[in-house]
Amino acid sequence: SKKEIKFEKIFFACESLDEIKQRFFKRIFHCSIYIGFYGSAETGVFACQSPKYSSTKIYLYPKDLVHIEIIDSKIIVTNLIRKRNQLIRFDIGDLGRLISNDEHDKYGLIEVFHSQRLVMIGNDSLSTSEVEEIMKQIDLIEWQLIIDYVPHTKNNHILLLFRYVKSESISIDVVEKNIRNYSQKFFDTALSNLSEQLIFQFESIQFKDLIRDKTSNKLLKIIDRRV
Fold this sequence. Notes:
Largest sheet: 5 strands, antiparallel
Radius of gyration: 22 Å
Low-confidence stretches: none
Helix content: 10-25%
Mean pLDDT: 83
Order of helices and strands: EHEEEEEEEEEHEEHEE
C-alpha cells in the first residue's frame, strides 16, 4: 500500500494561500498549519503571518526591527536592525496599507496588495494584467502606457497616458472610446466620478517614437514615472 505523505506545517514566501489552496494541501499532505513570510531582496524577510491571517494578505512585523511607511499606496521599508549603519528606505515594489493593531503595541499589521497593481483610488485599482487585457480587446499591438502625476495638483492626481502607433484602420477617437469603455469594467466607481483623481490622455505616435530600454532596446509597455 502507498504510504501517505504528511506535513505538519507549510511555510511559504510567495502569494498567500487562500482557503481553497489550504483545503487542497490539507487533503493531499494532511497539514493544518500555514505560515507565510514576506520581504524583499533588499530588506530580507521582515514580516510573517499568524494562523489567524494565513488565508489573507495580512502580515505582522516587529516595529522595533523594521519601519514601514505607505506613500502613495507604495510600501517603503527601513530596516532598523543595524542602526549603526546608514539607514536606507527601500521601495520594495508592492502596494499595501497599514492596519491598526490594538492587540499588541510591539507588532504592526500590513496588508500587501498584488504587486501588479498600478493604480489605486479608494477601493478601485488597475493592474498590469488588466491594462494588457484592455489593449488586447481593442487589438492594439504596438502601444505603451505612461503613468505619472498631473503637474501642479495638490492631491497627486494620476495621469494615464496611452500611446499607440498610428494606424489607418483605427482613429484616436475610437481608441479613446474603447479604452475608456474597457477600463470601466475594472472599476466599481464610474470613471466620470474619478475625473478629478484619474486623468486619461491619448497620443497616436510613429513607431520610432515608442520608448525603449536604453540597454536592451526592448519596448517598454508600462512606464511608471511616479517614482
